[in-house]
Amino acid sequence: MADDNQLAHMVFFTLNDPAQAQGLVDGCMKYLTNHPGLAYFSAGARGEEFDRPVNDQEFHVALHAVFESKEAHDAYQTSPRHLEFVERFKGGWKQVRVFDSYV
């Protein structure tokens, strides 16, 4: 399956201080965009108005990245810009949940 499909990398950040959500979104845009093999990218704060019983409320920022291949995703994980992002922002994270799947 990995040979033919893109890899969707979805990350949900719960912050120590929810007021820092926009700063994390800005950091995502600065450090995590324009990587080789990135087919789609978006990052944003959770919409407070999405409050149906099925909506997960346990995160503040969502990152959505779709890579052309698993290899492109794997290269992204070890790229200097991604590693710098993690180092700069990890102190503000209470929890990080990652969901990877083929699409």
Count of spatially separate domains? 1
Task: Classify the fold: give the CATH topology.
Answer: Alpha-Beta Plaits
Strand order of the largest sheet: 2-3-1-4
Indicate the low-confidence ranges by residue numbers.
none
SS element count, helices: 3
Q: Over all CA atoms, what is the radius of gyration?
A: 14 Å
Number of strands: 4
Question: What is the CATH architecture assignment?
Answer: 2-Layer Sandwich
Q: What distance separates the N and C termini?
A: 9 Å
The major pleated sheet works out as: 4 strands, antiparallel
Q: Could you report the average pLDDT, rounded to the nearest whole number?
A: 96
**Secondary-structure element pattern, one letter each:** EHEEHHE
Structural class: alpha+beta
Give the key terms.
33% strand; 28% helix; globular; four-stranded antiparallel beta sheet; Alpha-Beta Plaits; 103 residues; alpha+beta; single chain
